[in-house]
Amino acid sequence: MNLAEKTVRKNYVFEGKIIKVRCDDAELPDGRPCRREVVEHGGGAAVLYVRGGEVLLVKQYRYAYGEELYEIPAGKLEPGEDPAKTAARELEEEAGFVPETVRLLYVLYPTPGYTNEKIYIYRAEGVKEGHVHLDDGEFLTSAFYPLEKAAEMIERGEIKDAKTVVAIQRVLLENAAKPM
User: How would you classify residue 39: left for phi > 0, otherwise alpha for psi between -120 and 50, otherwise beta?
Assistant: First the structure.
């Protein structure tokens, strides 16, 4: 069975700096009409940096949730920008570290029910000291946390950000798979 839905007409209802919102006329696989609400987002890139058994996390107030969240460094993609460059840029901007390379771990679809956003999660390798230079209006702190503590923070609900949970779980799985 073909599950694809067909876009009949895109109807933009809002165009902002970060997102655009549409309420499209569409067609179901059986031909019936329907409406689909879509939040268009250019995507983002995040970077996992583990040093000596500790993971780098930033803590930042997120207005939409009304609370401070622990996250791995991340930022939005500039139009046409390579996600790997975004990840490397954000690691330096937010925490002052410059990776020699970044290796793609995952492409995450955070909320497929209503947005086309993709988050590219990388792992930083060959990292050197650089300089923090936050964007205008960006306020955050960064610190290293032992992986065991980060795992406990996830279990206690202190780390809630999906990309961060996925990245930390990846490291924990890799460590568990290593022979002793």
Answer: beta
